[in-house]
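User: Sequence in, structure out. Go.
Assistant: Echoing your sequence, followed by the C-alpha cells.
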Amino acid sequence: MMRAKLSDTSFTSRAISAIAIALFLVSLPGCGLTGNSSSPSHDTETLPASPEAVAVENSQAQQPSTDKDEDKVLKCEQLVRNPPGIEEIRRTPQLGIESREIRVERTADSYRWVVYRSRGSAPDGWRSQNGLDKLHFNPALQFLLPDKDPQFLAYAPSVAETPQDSEQMMSIADNFGPKVGTFEWNGKHYTYTASKHLPCFPEPEE
C-alpha cells in the first residue's frame, strides 16, 4: 500500500515536472511547439546617411550638370574628410606664377569651394610665387599654363605614411585625375595633378 502511494506520488511529480518543462520551452523565443513561433528576421537594416553624405548630396543637387550617383557621392564625401592641398595657379604677363589656396567649406546644409586669404596675399587671395625653383617642380608649373587661363593644382604626399595621406592620394586620383608631376617641400616629396575645374562642389565666387 505504501509502495503504491509512493508510486502514485512519483508519477504525479513526474507529470507536473513534464508539464512545467513543456510550458517553459513554449515560452522560449523560436520554440514553436504550438505553431505560433516567431522566426528570426533576416531583413537588412538601413543605416541613416552621415551628415557629410547628406551635405554632399545637397551640394550636387544644386548643380544640375553634376552626375548624381552613389559612387560619386562616396568620392566627394572622401574628399571632404581629408581634402588634398589645392592651389589655383595662373601665369602673369611677366611669365611669373601666382597662386592662391583653395579650401572646401561647409555651409548650412552643403559644401562649396572658397578662396583662403593668407597673410600677405592680395584681397582676392593671389600671391606671387618667386621661390618655386626651391621646390623642384618636375615638370615646371609654367608647362601647365600654356595660356593665361588658371588651373587648379591638387597635391598629396608621394608615399602614404598615414591613413590621411592615403585618402588624400585616393581623392586626387578619383576626383582630379592621374598625377602630372612631383615636387619637394620641407624635405617631403609630393605628387600633383592639374585641372581646369574643381570637382564635386561649386567653385569659388570672385
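User: And one key feature?
Assistant: The helical segments are 2-27, 51-61, 70-81, 163-175.
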